[in-house]
Amino acid sequence: MASFNSNEWRAICDKFTNAQNLTEIESRNDKENDPFRSKYKARELLREIYCSLKNFEAGEGEEEGGGESGEQRPTEQPVDGQREDLFGQGFSGDSPAGLRAARLGAVEYYLGVNHVDTEELSAGQEHLMNCMKLLERCRVSSPNVSLFIQVRNQLGILWAGRDETETAQGFLETAESIYQRYMKEDGSPPTDMTEYFAAEENLLTHQERIKRFELAYTHTMYYLAQVYKNLGQTERAATYCHTTLQRQLQLNQFTPMEWALNAATLSQYYITKGRYMEGRHCLSAATVISDLAGEVPSEAAAQENETESERREHLRQKRAEIARCWIKYCLNLLQDAKKQLEDNIGELDTDRQEELKRARRREEEEEEKGRKSALLFGSEDTFDSIASIEEKVMCLFPLDFTEARSVFLVGQNHVTQAKDYFQMDGYVTDHIEILQDHSALFRSLAFFEEDLERRCKMHKRRVDMLEPICNDLNAQYYLMIRRQLMFELAETYNEMMDLKLALANRQADTQSLDNHTIKKFNHLCSASAKYFQMFLDSLCSPEGKFPERLEEEVLRPALVARFRVARLHSRLISTSPTVQLDNLNKSLENYKYVVQYCEANPEAGAAVETELELSKEMVGLLPLKINRLNARMDSNN
Question: What CA–CA distance (Å, rounded) separates 39 from 47?
C-alpha cells in the first residue's frame, strides 16, 4: 500500500501553512497594481498539494474524485431530505478513505475560495462543486462536518452575489440543518479543516475547535439573514441578524464599530414594528460596543498621522450614525404614543390617557417577563453597561408631558451629536434630515403640552431652525428638500396661528380681539399661506405655468396646499371691505381649483376626500358671502 513518508507529509503540511499565510497575511500588503500576487502564489501551492494527494490516491488504486466541471446551476435541498446520504451512508470521516476524500475536498474548497477572492467566479464555483462531489462519498461526522458546512456557506455567498437568492438559500439552509443535526446527534468538538494538514503537535485544542466551528455556523446565520432580507422575509431576517450579533459577542469575534452599526440598524426594524424594548436594547448595546473601538484621537494626533486622521473621522461618522438611530427611536416612540392618545381632531384624549395610565402597572410587570424572553446581548462584562444606558430612556409609551419630555431630551442630545459630524458644510442632505427630525421631536412634544403659549413657543423653535435653511438652499440642486421644508413651515405657521387664536378666544370672541393680537394672527396666517404658495410655485414650469396634471408624488400635497391657501385667505382679519373682498375671492379661486381638478381627474378625489368635501361646501357658500359684502359696499357708496 502506498503511503507518504514523514518528510513528504511534512512538505505537504509546510506548503499548506505557507498557502494560508500568503492568503491571510501577506495578501494584505500586495500592491494596488498587483492585488492578487500573494493569492496566486497560494493557489500554486494548493495545486501542488492536490497533485500530491491525487498521486497518493492513484497509487492505492482509488478512483479519482471530483467530477465534470461546468457552469450548470446547482441546487441544494435541506439536509432532512438527504439524511441517509449525509448522515447514514458513505465513508466515516475517521476511515482512511473518508479522510482522503475530506482532504481532497478541503483543497478543492480552498482553491474555490481562492478563485472567488481573485474574481474568477466560474472557476471558484467549479472547485467548490468538486468539493461537494468528493463529500458525497462521506457521511457527516466529527472530522468533516466543518467542511460540509463551510463549502455550503461559500456556495451560498457565491450565488447570492449573482442575485440567485433562492439557490443561495438552499445551500445555506442545508448548512444550518447539518449543524443542528450534528449538535443534536454528536456535538463533540469537530476537526477544523486546517488540521487536515497539521502535524500532531500543531493540532487545535478542544476550545479552539469549538470556537472555529461555532464561528462557521455564525457565518451561516449571517448569510441567511441577508438572504431572507432579499427575499422580503423581514421578520426572519431580523431574527437571524439578532442571533448573529449575539453569537459574535459570545465568541468574541467581531469588529466593534461594525457590530455596533449592525445592532443600531437592527433597532430600526424593531422600531417600525413597535418593539421598543428590543430596539432600545440594540441601541444601548451599540453604544456600549462602539466605545470598544477606542476614544476619538485628539486633533493634534490626527494632524501628525494621516492614518490616525482617517480613523478619527471613521469613528466620528459611525458614532454619528448610531446617534441618528437613537433620534429615530425617540421620535417614533413619541409619535406612536401620540397616535394612542389623540382624539378625532388630533388633540389629547384625557379619558384615553387615564385609561392607559391605569394599564401601565400591568405593562411594567409584563415588561420584565418580556425581557427574559428576548434575545439579549452581552456578557457579564458588558450587560451592566448596556442596562445602565437602557435605564436612561423608557421603552413604554410616554403618557404625559413629563414622560414625553424625558424621551425628547434623549433624542435632542443625540441630535447635537449627529449634527456635530453631519454639518451643513459637506453634508447638506444629512444635516437637513437631522434638523427635520429635531423639528418633529418638538412637534411631538408639543402634543403633550397643555399650556398653549408654551406649545406655540415649541413650534416657533421649529420655524427658527428650518426657515433660514429653506430660504438659503439652492432650488436647482435641492428642489425636493426645499419643497419638504416649505410644506412643513407652512403647516407649522398654521398650527401657531390656531394656537394664538385659541389663546385669544379664551378671553374674548374674535370681534373683540385687540390690534396686537389681530396683527400677530394675520402675520402667522400670511406666513403659512406664503409657504404653501411657495410650494405650489415650485411645481410650475420655468415659464411659470402650473401643471395641468399633477404627478402622483405631489398630487396630495399640491391639492392640500391649495385647500389650505383657500382656508387661510378666508381667515385673514381686516376692517377694510376691499381687502376682505380680495381675500374671499382668492379663497374661492383656490377652493374651485380643488373641486375642478378632482372633477377632471376623478381618481384624485380619493387622495383628498375630506378636503374635497369641504371645498365643495365652500364653493357653494363663499359666493353668497361675497355677494353680501359687495352689496354692503355698494350701499355704503
Answer: 12
